[in-house]
Amino acid sequence: MNLETRPPRAEPLGVLETAALLRELTAGLIAVDDFDEALSALVRITRDALVGVRWCGFTALRAGEPAGAAASDLQLAGLDDLRYGPDTPALDAIRRREMVGSECLAGEPRWPDWTPRAGELGVRGVISAPVDIDDQVIGAVNLYAGESDVLTPGHQLTAMLLAEHAGLLLAAVRERERRAALSGAQDAALLGDGVIGQAVGVIMTQRGCPPSDALDVLRSAASSLSIPLREVAERLVSTVSRPREN
């Protein structure tokens, strides 16, 4: 019976397990600023947290094109990667904007190319839930069972809550990634500026630190003195360039 048509019933998988999963996901992704790293953490944490879920995957699209995939186990990586074909539960969930799945893939007709591959890898059941990340990236989180009839309405509810929470966390990761890239571009521009670059070189020599740390020292000094960064750099360069008195 397909998950969409199975009548709901009380399940032991519920609030406490789902809450623990969402807390662990938050803790694992709250400081991550790399999208691929975040996906890897998400699928690993989900796999380890949910009883009955043997593997977890994630499929991402950007502007309708494959933008990344992650799998908790390398042997299943191809099941989440749309480059291996569009006939997947993940893309079905993304297109329909609703959760899809099957508690028993034996004889499942909806994904004729994908299902045999999944069966060869030991997958017997699947739930895919769409994940809205931001205005550019969408995706689906995929829960896989190694036995038939173990994915229940409790797993469906967890998948829905997981998808909503993951969307918020991944959107935050994307924003941090964007800000980090912007900050990196700004730092590169500053380091290429004559006097600021010279000042950074002076600090690097004095402290034996990398350029980014030296630039942070300049910024800290500018903030403490409430003067522009360039003026701090000019003062430093002027000081070290001044001839020493005998």
Domains, number: 2
Class from secondary-structure proportions: alpha+beta
Query: DSSP helix count?
Result: 9
User: What oligomerization state is this entry in?
Assistant: single chain
CATH superfamily of the largest domain: Transcription factor LuxR-like, autoinducer-binding domain
The CATH architecture of the largest domain is 2-Layer Sandwich
Overall morphology: elongated
CATH class of the largest domain: Alpha Beta
Keywords: Transcription, Transcription regulation
Organism: Micromonospora phaseoli
Protein name: GAF domain-containing protein
GO molecular function: RNA binding
Detailed description of the structure:
- This is GAF domain-containing protein.
- By secondary structure, this protein is an alpha+beta fold.
- It has two domains: 166 residues, Transcription factor LuxR-like, autoinducer-binding domain (Beta-Lactamase), CATH 3.30.450; 50 residues, Arc Repressor Mutant, subunit A (Orthogonal Bundle), CATH 1.10.10.
- Helices cover 53% and strands 14% of the residues.
- Strands 2-1-5-4-3 form a five-stranded antiparallel β-sheet, with helices on both faces.
- A hairpin with a 4-residue loop joins strand 4 and strand 5.
- Helix 8 packs across helix 9.
- The radius of gyration is 25 Å and the shape is elongated.
- About 4% of the residues have low confidence.
